[in-house]
Amino acid sequence: MRKTLKELRKESGFTQGYVANALEVDQTTVSKWENGESLPRVETLLEIAKFYNVTLDMIELSKKSRSKK
Known about the structure:
Layout: E1 3-4, H1 5-12, H2 16-23, H3 27-34, H4 42-52, E2 59-60, H5 63-67
Parallel strand pairs: 1-2
Helix pairs in contact: 2-3
């Protein structure tokens, strides 16, 4: 089952600040990813998958983000 970045974070019990710290990005960046305002870079997406211990195909990126490309 595919999950959004927000779902993965909440299920893990993490705050946006914690995820931002772990991935070495700003908290507003995490918020933008979760709200579909921007997409993580491919390299960062790989780090996110590793961080949550999921495969890339398990991560659902929002339609709003994809339509901007």
